[in-house]
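lol ok so funny story. i was supposed to be doing the assay writeup but got distracted and ended up predicting the structure for this chain instead. priorities right. anyway since i did it might as well share w the group, maybe its usefull for someone
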Amino acid sequence: MGRRTILWGAFIVIHAVVAWLGWIMPNQPMGDVYLVYEPWSNQALSGAGIVGITSPWVYPQLALVPMVLAHGFSWVGGYVVGWALLAIGCNALAFWMLVGGARSRGRVRAAWFWLGSILLLGPVGLYRIDAITIPLAIAGCLWLVGRPWLGSMLLAAGAWIKVWPVALLAAAVIAVRRRMAVAGGALVISALTLIAIAAAGGIAHAFGFIGDQTGRGLQLEAPVSALYLWRAVLGVDGSFIYYDPDILTFQVAGPNVDVVIAVMTPLLIAGLVLIAVVGAVKAWRGATFATLFVPLSLSLVAVFIVLNKVGSPQYLTWIAVPLVIGLVLDRRRWAAPAALGLVLAGLTQIVYPITYGGLLQAEAGPAFVLTVRNVLLVVLLVWALVRLARVRTRAPRARLARTR
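and the output, tada:
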């Protein structure tokens, strides 16, 4: 039996298991699908209003597209099954691109890593809108060098579904030699999306998702929430966990929490800009795509999670993308952070959905697991930053001399 057959067999088994776990695990790991995606899409299909067009929305407007498309598979067993089939189908297309003929050891190892991360993260990675952006991002990154226009268009489409692929786009603009092609592809998708939004009469809400995110509180699972979480665990007066019905998440409260909320978004932006500047300097000094793109993209994605006041468990799907590309380009150098990525995925599934009920009750055990997960996230970020700082470059003078 060939490696390709084994990989595809594992793909089918792992996705079937993860899809099934969504039905039997506690704390509603499929909740977003039937609580919000299905009602939003039904509302649009029935003519009762389109989120992001006739009203503000937490997501960019293209996020509604897969929510509507899932209805096309709902005849199999309802909307939740339709969503799972759509997400698995998208993964299959990206997996086919990644594996190819299974002749490359780097691609084979990357494929096994991706399957492992899907299994260890569990159903939250499948039953969330992020599940659609991951295969788009992997395919886009794989095409950045050979087909930069197409690669950037896929990344931009992902960003108009869930914002995070913007980090990959920024890394691509910096690291890919054909920068104008990368920027052009992203601009084409963005322009077409905005034209469609304007034609539908929703231009006033075109960027409403940005304001919605900046106005949020500290989500329970975010690294920055650790102090308030442990105050709640220890029963310190004034600190507690509460449910925000407007954005359907659990958040933390405590002393000076409004100050922390106000600081986090500027801090996140500053972190992203600083990392991008470091990457730009490396590119200007001659760093190649093969050495620069992965540490730069991983740094940007990791800081997007670590400094984010929103810490949803599905965010851990994001780190799989730069790690997959890292294993494709240099499987030995990226083996250690990929292993850490698998540990992070496993710990995240323990937090949600397995022990999430206890976490909401401020129990010490789940809080400890979450804290360890978040500390390891910081470790991964530091590793990526160190790797970015060590990217080899050529001196500007040498470059100038060669161009004369």
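Residues 397-404 have pLDDT under 50 and may be disordered. Residues 223 and 374 are 6 Å apart (CA to CA).
back to the writeup now i swear
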